[in-house]
Amino acid sequence: MLVTSLFVKELDISDLLKLDVIGIKDPIEKLSEKEQEDLTKEHSLQSVRYSDKKRHEVHLTWLDNCAPLPDNLELVIKRLQSTTKKLLHENVYDAYEGIFLEWPHEGIIEEVPVDEINLAGNYLSHRPVLKESSTTPIRPVFNTSAPMKGKPSLNESLHSGSNLIELIPDILLLFREKKIGVSAVIMKAFLQISICKEYRDFLRFLWWKNKDYQEHKDFVIPEWSLEFEADLSC
């Protein structure tokens, strides 16, 4: 005889959305999520400063007692070589490189000075995302969670904040309270947020000096304005 038993339980929508992070959150936590988030917010508010360039400079929100980040330069070089092969194969190398040539003039990235290249830091790999229907048909996406065996990634070393997806139902319900709902977009909002100089070496990436693909240049990301494959937030 075959018996099937079902268990039914009512859940809030926010509980269902928490399923998105199953397997990501550490089940053993010294502090509750709420306490951790409050401490992170307090630290961020106390450490933020307004720079001479009229940008709000923020710190990276490191986890307590996190292990030092490994030297991942060789890993990122291999990924750059792989990405380059893909770009050449798909005939989009020049378009992709054009972005990195334009960004320094816009202040989005900065080349690392020669005398600072050997300083400790962390490198981000990047890859192209193609979308021909978009106003930007190709764009780089940076990976802050590239793993090294037995070593933490940048993503695993930072507070990621709460799961903002859980807030979406509450926001949508607000549009039912009145007859007219208004939404707006702040242009270049993330360009108003900058990373403090002492943390920028943890946001390095590589690109080629020329098209023989032998020597690379080191860049840092000073502005919190790029797209990351991670749950970084600020």
TrEMBL record:
Source organism, top-level taxon: Eukaryota
Q: What is this protein called?
A: Uncharacterized protein
